[in-house]
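Reposting from the mailing list since nobody answered there.

I have sequence plus structure tokens for a pair of proteins and want to know whether others read the tokens the same way I do. The first protein:
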Amino acid sequence: MGFFRESRIFLAIAIPVYIIVKALFCLNILSPYIQQICLYAIIVALTSLGLNVIYGYTGQFSLGHAAFYGIGAYTSAYVTKLLCIESAISFIPVLILCGIVSGFIGYLIGIPILRLRDDFLAIATLGFGTLVRVFLDNSDKFAESLGGSRGFVGIPRITNLELVFFSLIFVVLVTRNLIHSRYGLFWQCIKDDELAASSVGIDTASMKLMAFTYGCMLAGFGGALYANLYVFLHPSNFDLLRSIDFLIIVIIGGMGSIMGTIYASIIWIGFIEGLRIALPAHVLDLRWVVIPILLIALMMWRPYGLMIKKPR
């Protein structure tokens, strides 16, 4: 009953938020640039939820999340350009396809590397992320339209407020359902003590692979929405620093907190882009001095994240 009550509360908050944001967009109170940043923040929240499932709920330290984000982005860009898709309704099957492709690749990669733990798993996922980055840099050798190191151009702009907002709501509800199911309980048991979870009969390998595949699928969804929002892709958009961004968001919001991830995504993107607007161009790089200091202060103040007061 608690799950359904919390879901109703979430929807009761989400719908008025959508109406307010839609009004701001339609009345042009927000500039096109700010509108784009708002959509991007929602996309980042959706993608970060995938990493929260992998790391926050299951305890698998992944540094390759941006690779699956990039796979979804390039898949969407290629399919929508090839099929000349321009409407949001026609884009929905492509969005699902991108999630399936990223999830399937995550499944294949997860079979061997999820045998590793902690730092070794992080290095393995980092290696896969580097592999994907190198492949994207040389992708024009496989298909000229992918652009390679020059970047992928000519992508139709399809992503709008309705697509990203209701995709996030759908993903949050599905994720909450999983977390409150027996699978979510198994994931949290594995995070707390994998050996103990295995000793009571939990198939830890299958459960870890399920969480990893689902998280990669969400990254594919986010990548597809990103590609058809910015209409230009470059391999540098999906490097280690992007994976670190997702990781920071999960930690700031609180590992194992869905709403914390959403709040942290909005705060993180708003802060980064706000500094870009506020600071003069010649001192813009100083934000990468200010931001780490603020992160250190935040971790001292709220060591378990904004939404969690103590470890679970």
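The second protein, same order (residues first, tokens after):
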Amino acid sequence: MMSLVNRHSVRIVRLVGTSVAALALVALVSVWAQTPNRFEAAVKAAYAKYKDLHEGKNADYIPALAKVDPNLFGIALVTTDGKVYTTGDVKSEVSIQSISKVFTLARVLEDSGEAAVADNIGVDPTGQAFNSIVAIEQYKGKEMNPFVNPGAITATSMIKGATPDAIFAKIIGTYSDFAGRPLSVNQEVYKSESETNQRNQAIAELMYAYGRIKDKPKQATDLYTRQCAVNVNARDLAIMAATLANAGTNPVTGKHVIDSKHVPPLLSVMAIAGLYDDSGKWLFATGLPAKSGVGGGIIAVSPGKFGIAAISPPLDQAGNSVRAQKAIADISDALHGNPYLFEVAPKPN
């Protein structure tokens, strides 16, 4: 009895006995292909390959981000059965930035459902930059998506609470449940962003003018700015991604964070708009729903298998971490993470 595992599929070379035996063999080969040693080896190989890569530069339009150590590089992978694999600097924290949009959207979906998002914000790529004001005017505040700034600030405004602090407690509580530990705000980054977020303030006012933000656009902008300044490390982000890979249940803590029915639409928005203007290139190359942030982090989800995260502050021209993209793509390729790949059993003779 022989088996062959290649990059794109698992093919059985010889079948023995009944179809039941064949199915068992397929399962056996699949398990073999994803042993813990393979996870650890893939993570370490990607780190070794890219640790000395020094392309890109830190975001500097937010002054505090320009000061983050550009040499910081950490990778983490968490499987849906709660196994954690890490390498590099996985303890140093960076601000979550636009990765926060994923988990705020999760809160909105959980509280208000898909229709509220589709009707009030939209779920389409705008064809414009992530912080475009032209796109708001073009579509009168509609046909956004929750990962461009107009849609993201609007999503934040949709979270209910009696006071701004109550709303933010719900936001950071959701993030913490996804990460499996209490998270906190980087006050230096929050202050730095608050002093330079005039464009986002204008975006919020326009979305308010078109009725997408129902009330208090300044409050929505401030809450959005605060959520982007939440501190995370690579391990946190990988657990957050793995919670999505595990249909909304944190695989490390066992806590049910979001109803499984909301995960597919959430991953769909990640697929179409997760890496700014390079979202299509990323999906074409990897097939993975993902989200980046200008703090240097990227998360990616292989549904039913694992979540990956990498942090490296230097960004490419699209605003995505150079090393994180390359490392995640290599790891996913080594572990057959692309959800568009599938296992093929041979037809019976």
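Reply #1 (J.P.):
I read it the same way you do. The longest helix spans residues 164-179.
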